[in-house]
Amino acid sequence: MNFVMFTYLLALIIVMIDLFTKSFIQMNENLHSVEVIKGFFSLTYVKNTGMAWSLLSNQTLLLTLISLFVVIYLAYYCYKHPLTRPYQVVFGLIIGGAAGNLYDRAILKYVRDFLDFIIFGYDFPVFNIADSALTIGVILLLILQIKEEKYGKA
Asked: Do residues 147 and 82 lie in contact, with contact meaning Cβ atoms separated by under 8 Å?
């Protein structure tokens, strides 16, 4: 499988898992607020018109355009540049995460969130699979960049 196909396939898998889980929670009203692990993890269905920590709430058009730009730019970048396997994974995660939330914003005008954690007493903002993929992708990108800066090409 060539370098760009792996990245696109990973992104597609992320989008499919993200949209399936969002739809499953949305359609099952009995799962809209369920404590799974007492005091730590709940399924809590939320319609989010912003981004993390409700930043830019009700700025759906702006967030949709940013997501669209990220998906198109990174997909094009991956097509034009040969990437090592770590970068294929990173860009697959970021593209998939951005595309999953882009779908929600473009079609529904909000993002469906449902993963709700309380970590060391802090009620972390509710998020979804796309958010997770995006966050993991960005963290891995930073790690790769730091590693390259310190040790050379990854």
From this structure: no
Three-state secondary-structure class, residue 71: helix
State CA 96 to chain mean position distance.
7
> From CA 10, how far away is CA 85, in angstroms rounded?
12
Residue 1 has pLDDT above 60, yes or no: no
Residue 19 has pLDDT above 80, yes or no: yes
Name the average pLDDT for the chain: 91
94 class by beta-carbon count within 10 Å (0-12 exposed, 13-18 middle, 19+ buried): buried
Q: What is the mean pLDDT of residues 33-57?
A: 87
Helix (H) or strand (E) holding 37: strand 33-37
Q: Which two tokens stand for residue 98?
A: 């951005």
Percentage helix, strand, coil for the chain under 3-state DSSP, each rounded to 5 = 65, 15, 20
8 Å CB contact between 137 and 99: no
**Active-site residue list:** 113, 131
Nearest to 93 by CA among 26, 127, 32, 139: 139
CA distances in angstroms from 51 to 29, 64, 67, listed in the order given = 23, 11, 11
Task: State what percent of residues in the chain have pLDDT above 90.
Answer: 75
pTM of the model: 0.90
